Amino acid sequence: MMPDTSPRTPSRSAVLRAELVTQASESAPRPRTVATGRVAVAAVVTFALAGATTGAAVAATGVLTPPSSVAISMDEMLMYSFPGTEFLGTPLIVTGSDETIVDLGLRPDDATGLALRVGCIDAGRYDIVIDGVADGWVQCTESDVVGGPSLAGGSSQYELTASGPQTVTVRGTHGDRYVVWVSWSQPPVAPEPSQAQADALADGVVTREEYLAGLDRYVACMEASGWQVYGIDREADVVSYSIEAISGADDLRCYAAEFSELDMGWQVSRE
Amino acid sequence: MSIPPSGVDRDDWSQAQRGVGEGFGRIFDRHRDRVYRHVLRLVPVPADADDAVAIVFFETWRRRDDARLVDGSLLPWLLVTATKVTQNLTRSARRHRALLAKLPAEEHARDHADHLDDGPASTALRELPLVDRHVITLCVLEGLTDREAALVLGLPVGTVKSRLSRAKRRLAARVDPHSAPLTRLDEAAHDA
Question: Which of A29, A129, A135, A183 could form a disulfide with A87 if both were Cys (CB 3.0 to 4.6 A apart)?
Fold first, then answer.
């Protein structure tokens, strides 16, 4: 018999609801205050991401706090952070402190994602908020930024929905500075498994031979694309190997086509 | 997938975080029954379910900075919170005892024994480790995809897949010790 899922007694439910509404109402963020003696720079600055033009990978830079040089290479962004992604329109790069709101505005028709990277100019924690909802943070120590601004923080690519994202907000504290890079994007679509991988998966069991054959096809695919796969330990139960960081897009393609399902199936069977 | 349409909670959750309490009230209205059905599976005594629901929403607000929306829905996060809360209901209730004391008892206590299907599957689910209960709840009972479950649990998709496979085997072994082990094709059927 199915559980009785009729609503709770109204009086209890109503009291609980009222309590939740009260809690949320009383937890409203307090107004921003500036400590005595601190320079009151603009606490909130809004920038707009242009989405109408396509193909121009030229950075528009808005500078809130000027005395720092931030160099961003589109090629490196593509290789390390978003391999296989196509950037659309003009990426927005803005340095800021305290709170910066990026109004994403109209998206290009062919955009399917939003690529975001937040880096540190000063050591500190920088919270990322998407459409008003906390979505993680980037944190840098002094050692991360001793050589200059660091883009070593995390990168994210968001799928677009009918209603969002509409804004990206970054919040720092104590005037610590950060850099925001954001662009409309088309994330890569992983290829379907190759026929060889599909055949190996057909019986629902991944044998050691099938696992290693998939690994060999993956390595061959990488080498055919001009990359080396290092330190392959074929004797290990779960084979380890290393690839070059800049091989990202080819790694995604070769792994999905030749090895990903076999790799996962084998590892699951060893647990 | 059985979570509500994309973005359904996003505006309300955003408003609540800005101090518009009614936003959290609307989220409560939208999901309380779903949360109630979920905790019924997990509490050892059905009479605890109402307190568990209240604690889930209190905890969700207390830890609101950690909450994750999946395609704009807070429901997966509420279910994960419910699974954690029911792991140790006594400890969870201790933190919120003052708030629970404000809530009136049900006017007409139901005889849950007449309504709840507390069969071997429910018993087996309660006996699983917490990590297994999370993925079974989200992927099997609530129909989330592996990607959605990964988002709300903060795990790589591959980890969710492997945990789900292991959890299914453990659950099947508890329900029917003679059942055949699951294959990759069974999992692929889920992913489809």
Answer: A183
